[in-house]
Amino acid sequence: MQSQPKPPRQPKRECEIPVIEKTDQLFVLLQHWLVSFLPAAMQPVAGVLLSVVAIVCIFPALFALTTVFERKGLGRIQNRLGPNRVGPFGLLQPVADGIKSLTKEDIVPLSADAVVHYLAPVVLVVAVFMGFAVLPMGRKMVLVDLDAGLLFYFAMGASTELAVFMAGWSSRNKYSLLGAMRAVAQMISYEVVLLLSSVTVVMMTGSLSLTKIVEAQNQYSWGLPHWFIFTPWGCAGFAMYAIAATAETNRSPFDLPEGESELVAGYHTEYSGFKFALFFLGEYLAMFSISGLGTTLFLGGWSAPLSSLTWVPSWIWFFTKLMLSIFVFIWMRGTLPRLRQDQLMNFAWKFILPMCLLNLFVAGLWTYLGSGWLRWVICSAILIAAYAAMGWGEMRRGKIGPRSYRYAE
To answer: Residue 341 — φ and ψ, nearest 5°?
Structure first.
């Protein structure tokens, strides 16, 4: 009896996609469903616009929630309550702050350059938003998957320094100008560190694509991930990246450009109302953006921390790591005192930058030595010895050392 040929397998329809994959690709499927109502020629443009709208809505919403959590967290650290009057548990405080910013008078100094004064906060916010375009926030969840995504991100990040200088220069105020010059000097110094700490990841993956960098870390051995932070060069690179990211976003203990005891409010002294709110928004968006990049480069991006947890949607892992990074920013703000300007610059050029250059050598040596325990010992020993020698040498010269406090008698 001759067997009948098997019918050809039908392609899996969307309704037959496994539930786990549906949950992981929830926003991608939603986008495809919404654009399916449009003509085929308009669908690519509509898809991009929907993604832009999602980014523009999600991160400002996170900014609003983060301001509440930060104020409550700092209140807990300082043994007080924090905002608790507007809405349940004070959660509607950002709404009240937003209304206040919209209704406050916009005061521009008579001698200021009105056009540049107006454009500075707009340029800052737009430049920060552009960085989100290349961050993979989940599996297949990236607005623009560029082969040189990391290069594009740093190019957009450099634009924020221009916006800060525009704000300080256009205000025609000595405190604003001094704050802007401080900010530009600080941001350029630590942007070099930020770039060099990221180069080690590019060396290991051989790509500037952030999507490929995440895929290179989305592997597991004995259930544990291959995140770059779990290597000697990756751990050192992440530590230096975190320090530089804190300085780039002007957060404590590197918030000298806004030193209220010296410069009133720094480069945005002459800003009020909604323009000041845009600077405030830009600072927090920069925190989200730079934390997202650090997550992508060293913490596996959207990949799960254990192979047994890969069923959890990838976008949940990305935003969990992102918010944990923000929590560390808040924790440091409530814990560490502000540095002096000379300490800040000495730390960048005399300690962190040489360590970054050494880490490039260690990353190359890691590849050259091949697999095995020997490379772990040699690379770790080089980094620890350099850290100890440089730290001891700086303390001996009196450049870095314990703080001394003097109190009025």
So the answer is: -65, -40
pTM: 0.88
- Quick check: 129 and 165 in contact, CB under 8 A? no
Produce one character per residue of 45-80: b if its CB has 16 or more CB atoms within 10 Å, e if not. ebbeebbeebbeeebbebbbebbbebbbbebeeeee
List all residues 6 or more positions away from 6 whose beta carbon is below 8 Å from its beta carbon.
Answer: none
Same-domain check for residues 92 and 203: no
Q: How many independent structural domains does the chain possess?
A: 2
Q: Rounded to an integer, what distance in angstroms lies between the CA atom of residue 62 and that of residue 284?
A: 9
Q: Has residue 188 been placed in a domain?
A: yes
Residues 237 and 340 in one domain: yes
69-108 confidence digits (pLDDT tens): 999 988 888 888 888 888 888 888 888 888 888 888 888 8
Domain assignment present for residue 345? The answer is: yes
Amino acid, res. 197: S
Are both 59 and 171 inside the same structural domain? Answer: no
Tell me: the pLDDT tens digits for 344-398? Answer: 888 889 899 999 999 999 999 998 888 888 899 999 999 999 998 887 877 666 6
pLDDT in tens, 246-269: 998 888 888 876 666 666 667 788
CA-based nearest residue to 195, from 2, 352, 75: 352
Identity of the residue numbered 304:
A
Note down the domain range covering 81: 44-102
Spell out a b/e string for 168-180, using b for 16 or more CB atoms within 10 Å of the CB, else e.
bbbbebebbbbbb
User: Residue 359: which of 210, 238, 187, 273 has the closest Cα?
Assistant: 238
Q: Is residue 346 part of a domain?
A: yes
pLDDT digits (tens, 9 = 90+) for 189-231: 999 999 999 999 999 999 999 999 999 999 998 889 999 999 9
In eight-state DSSP terms, residue 143 is: S
- Whether 231 is in a domain gets the answer yes
